[in-house]
Here is the input.
Amino acid sequence: MSELKLKGQTALITGGDSGIGKGIALKMAANGANILVNYHSNKKAAEETVEELKAFDVSAITYQANVGDEMQVQQMFQEAINRFGTIDILVNNAGLQQDSAFKDMTLDQWNKVININLTGQFLCAREAVREFIKRGPRPEVSKALGKIICISSVHEVIPWGGHANYAASKGGIMMLMKSMAQELGGLKIRINSIGPGAIKTPINHQAWETPAAAQNLLKLIPYDRIGETEDIGNAAVWLASDESDYVHGITLFVDGGMTLYPGFASNG
Ligand code: BGC
Here is the structure.
């Protein structure tokens, strides 16, 4: 068996109970990481995820918190430190959509998406950075002082009608990630994003659950398959491991080529 890439490290994964977050949790645990599975409302899903993670012989716990709430985020990090000693990896994954035609979009829909998707990433990253600096290096597990992976989207660069709040939040994540990376690289805090394309998860089920919908979606994907959560999990393990130690401040698109403007293949 190949060496475990994240052995002895702890990852805090927001929204780790389903979809992409769960896919990342499974791959990180398979690579030896202990995991805090943050969830918002689905306790049962979080508990089931933790059971699956324990099969990899790592420690795993659930923790309920709203990532958009400063106090809840601070308490969650305190719990992670109490239970695991420290954290080495933050996966800023929690996110949601509240889709609406622009003229009908309510302020609540706007605020909710910005609060969870963007402010939530800020609040969690700030706590992670504070902990990395406070505890100092752990050369026995990683060359970096700590790693942050922001889960963005192809929609940090592809505009998305009917989803202005969501696309704005993801564009914001891009500049949040890059600004943090520029400022904190000197401390050896390594920060990157993953930009998933269409991955089969509950968030976009209507886009792939019928054969007709899936056929339509595939027109946007040059590599001609819809992504799986393990595609993102594999990328996240690499970005969290020392194998990518010189990779800093990038968005790694894992999208089957969705960002290649496939409409131009036969037009323009
Ligand atoms: C969205 C999905 C969408 C995908 C590709 C993701 O960020 O959450 O709903 O299918 O981007 O458009």
Remarks:
- Helices lie at 19-30, 43-54, 70-84, 107-135, 164-184, 211-218, 229-240.
- Residues 3 and 185 are 27 Å apart (CA to CA).
- Residues 10-256 form a domain with the Rossmann fold fold (CATH 3.40.50.720).
